[in-house]
Amino acid sequence: MLVRRLAQAVVTMLIAVLAIFVAVRVLPANPVIAQFGQHAVPEKIEKEMEERGWNKPLWQQAIAFVGQMAQGNLGESFARPGEKISTRLSQAVPATLELTFAAMLIAIPVGVAVGTVAALWRNSWPDWISMAIALLGVSIPVFFLAICLIVAFPSMPTGYRLPPGTFHDLHTEFYFFESLLTGQFQLAAISARHLALPAIALSTIPLAVVSRVTRNSMLEVFDADYLRTARAKGASLLRVIVRHAFPNASLSVLNIVGFQLGMLLSGAILTETVFNWPGLGRYVVDAIRDYDYSVVQACALVLACIFVTLNLTLDVLFLVFDPRLREGNRS
């Protein structure tokens, strides 16, 4: 099964590469004209098109593009000649991933706790309040909540991942997680302050979705005979939830967490724009504004690659946690 999933992932990426290539080429604006302006000399535009291969037939450009992507060569920025896209992405992608993981660190435990409480006291006031909060979390637009948070907490920093000029000896772009793991707690605290508001804003929708899925999954499990048997034998409520109920309800939660993680990566664009967070979303917005198509297609490819990797990881986790899938594959 894993080999089949790997083959599907490769085919999906190939389709994604071709789809992104076609989508960028059919856009009405010419990136070369956008780079030099409407009054650029035609000979200069023609020369630039020839150097970049944009004057060749579309199928030749597609083959060259796929070969370039297969080698991991994302090219140079149209708007900023000489700037390698991979260099900027090596900074922007970790910033987005760190923000996304921080949002999920808020959404998963809080969502599971809220959903479990709602299931335990179904059709009572804790259930109604929990589900009302979940509905509110799904309904409020992220950008509006982000603006509200900035207004409500004016002392919290926005716009940087660390204060300008902060000295650090971190080796990766995962500022918060690396400083935490290496014992630089003061730096981790500073980084967490910058991370707090964007992560809270980004976590609201997955938190609401996780809480609703957890509630429904728990309600199904609570009605099972083996749980009533466990309670009849004198097992405590906490043991029933932790030992019996949650492991059986976790597959549905795991599925929705993987889906929400992918949605967060693409949905981080609005949050990063509002908070001026230097991640992948802001990089894409700047590229669209500058008609920098090479950057747009590179960012789209990175997001597609992350989606495919997430789905593949979920398939592996389902195989690990669900024995029925392993038995099905053997048969």
Topology:
Layout: H1 2-25, H2 31-36, H3 42-52, H4 58-70, H5 85-120, H6 125-139, H7 142-152, H8 175-181, H9 185-222, H10 225-232, H11 237-275, H12 280-289, H13 293-321, H14 323-330
Q: Could you explain how this protein is built, in words?
A:
It is a single chain. 77% of the residues lie in helices and 0% in strands. It is mainly α. It is globular. It starts with a helix and ends with a helix.
Brief overview:
The protein has 331 residues and is mostly helical.
Please name the defining characteristics of this protein.
331 residues, mainly alpha, 14 helices, 77% helix, globular
Order of helices and strands: HHHHHHHHHHHHHH
Helix content: over 70%
Mean pLDDT: 80
- Which spans of ≥5 residues are poorly predicted at pLDDT below 50? none
Q: Which term fits the overall shape?
A: globular
Using only C-alpha atoms, the radius of gyration works out to 24 Å
By DSSP (H or I, 4+ residues per run), the number of helices equals: 14
Chain oligomer state = single chain
The helix-and-strand class reads: mainly alpha
> What's the story with the biggest beta sheet?
none
What is the distance, rounded to the nearest whole angstrom, between the alpha carbons of the first and last residues?
Answer: 12 Å
Beta-strand percentage? under 5%
